[in-house]
């Protein structure tokens, strides 16, 4: 965007000075244009980098806790307009501590990256995956139906297990969910509901 703005500015500059005012054209125009474009490109790259780091978890590349809440409120407004629902899924890895203790924290980090990749591969293009903290993830699922939620969660758990089975054969995930607006209208309420469901799932295992 920054490069485009600078390019447009230089096109206007050319027509204004050399067409409208009929001033003689100087080859230094290209040097100045190249300098301006380089500065715009560098500044744009720095902005993109800062924006990425402010929105993403540095380890897994998924969205961070701040962004998932912002996304929820925007998605909830769309759901109200379209009369649709929104799934809030909480996911916690079982035996994650054992992985860290047995293989080391670098292996634990590797597992988190694998799980994040499995989640991003599984979800739809309008869904969002975020690392909530530690070995917990949150997934927002567009137009998730209550009658099919259990099947969706089962498939999600299977996808994580299959993705990590080669390097971490005993790792599974406990999952809980809540659905907007049926189970609550605030993000905090839905997170609490999904969290309670998740820990009940963990206890049952």
Descriptive terms for the model:
4 strands, 205 residues
Ordered list of secondary-structure elements with their pairings:
Blueprint: H1 2-20, H2 28-55, H3 65-82, E1 86-93, H4 96-103, H5 105-122, E2 128-133, E3 136-142, H6 149-164, E4 173-180, H7 187-204
Write up what this structure looks like.
- It is a single chain.
- The chain is an alpha+beta fold.
- It is built from 7 helices and 4 strands.
- The chain has a 4-stranded antiparallel β-sheet with strand order 2-3-1-4, with helices on both faces.
- Helix 5 (about 105-120) packs across helix 6 (about 150-165).
- The protein is elongated, with a radius of gyration of 24 Å.
- The protein starts with a helix and ends with a helix.
- The model has no long low-confidence stretch (mean pLDDT about 85).
Short characterization:
With 205 residues, the chain is α+β, with helices and mostly antiparallel strands.
Percent of residues in beta strands: 5-15%
Number of helices: 7
| Helix and strand composition category | alpha+beta
The average pLDDT value, as a whole number, equals 86
Helical percentage: 55-70%
Distance between the termini: 51 Å
The strand order across the widest sheet is 2-3-1-4
The H-and-E topology, N to C, reads as HHHEHHEEHEH
| Outline | elongated
What is the C-alpha radius of gyration, as a whole number of Å? 24 Å
User: Unreliable runs, pLDDT <50, ≥5 residues?
Assistant: none
Number of strands: 4
For the report, how would you describe the main beta sheet? 4 strands, antiparallel
């Amino acid at each position: 965007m920054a490069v485009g703005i600078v390019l447009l500015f230089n096109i206007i500059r050319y027509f204004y000075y050399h067409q409208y005012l009929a001033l003689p054209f100087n080859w230094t125009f290209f040097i100045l244009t190249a300098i301006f474009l380089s500065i715009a490109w560098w500044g744009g790259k720095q902005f993109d980098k800062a924006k990425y780091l402010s929105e993403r978890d540095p380890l897994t590349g998924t969205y961070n806790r701040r962004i998932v809440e912002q996304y929820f409120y925007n998605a909830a407004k769309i759901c109200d307009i379209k009369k649709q629902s929104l799934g809030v899924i909480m996911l916690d890895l079982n035996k994650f501590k054992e992985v860290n203790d047995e293989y080391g924290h670098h292996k634990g980090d590797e597992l988190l990256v694998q799980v994040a990749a499995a989640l991003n591969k599984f979800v739809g293009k309008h869904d969002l995956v975020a690392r909530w903290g530690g070995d917990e993830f949150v997934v927002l699922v567009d137009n998730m139906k209550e009658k099919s939620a259990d099947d969706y969660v089962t498939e999600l758990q299977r996808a994580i297990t299959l993705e990590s089975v080669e390097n971490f054969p005993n790792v599974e995930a406990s999952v809980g969910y809540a659905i907007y607006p049926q189970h609550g209208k605030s993000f905090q309420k839905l997170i609490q509901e999904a969290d309670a469901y998740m820990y009940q799932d963990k206890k049952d295992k």
